[in-house]
Amino acid sequence: MTEPTILHAQFTAQPGRGDEVAALLRDFADKVRAEEGNVVFDATRLVDDPDRFFVYEVYRDDEAFRAHLAAPAGVPFNAALQQLIVEPTSQLTFLRRL
């Protein structure tokens, strides 16, 4: 059985830019959820720190994740996100189911 590719991404909006990040992320989430190999794309905002974002992602397998990375929506999303967040890029952590 092929293992799913599971990860979470974290990033912090620049001061005063949290609502812009949320809007950008909502639009991107709709596009990712429509990808054939996407199983979960759960974008959230921390309750105690609304400038911090946490995205949980599951893809059918590594091939589906690679297709996600190559999808046309990713390049403009990441370019726009980089202008709005404190970190240079999203901080990705890959996970494995137990």
Please give a handful of descriptors for the protein shown:
alpha+beta, 4-stranded antiparallel β-sheet, 98 residues, Alpha-Beta Plaits, 35% helix
Structure in a nutshell:
Helices cover 35% and strands 30% of the residues.
Helicity, in percent?
A: 25-40%
Succession of helices and strands = EHEEHHE
Report the sheet with the most strands, covering strand number, pairing sense and barrel closure: 4 strands, antiparallel
Poorly predicted runs? none
Count of strand segments: 4
In percent, how much strand structure appears in the residues? 25-35%
Question: Which CATH architecture?
Answer: 2-Layer Sandwich
What structural class do helix, strand and pairing data support? alpha+beta
Count of separate DSSP helical elements:
3
Straight-line N-to-C gap: 14 Å
Number of domains: 1
Shape: globular
Please list the strands of the largest sheet in the order they lie side by side.
2-3-1-4
